[in-house]
Amino acid sequence: MAKTLTFGIMHVAIAFGVTYALTGNLAVSGAVTFIEPAVNTVAHYFFDRYWERREPGAKHKTLPQTGYGGDDLPLAT
Question: Region Disordered: which residues (predicted)?
Fold first, then answer.
């Protein structure tokens, strides 16, 4: 979890820095810093839905069971 949080902070800092370097405007940089991840999250949701539908014959995802039995477990979709 620490790695994910650190990456998130780094992403926000980079987005702010790049936008500020391009515009020189703190307000625009702040807005882009928080709007871009929100838009990206929504786009990723629809991309995942599209990707799952185009997989031939895929009705559900599975993860390998590494404990008792060794069967694949279906994930909730």
Answer: 58-77
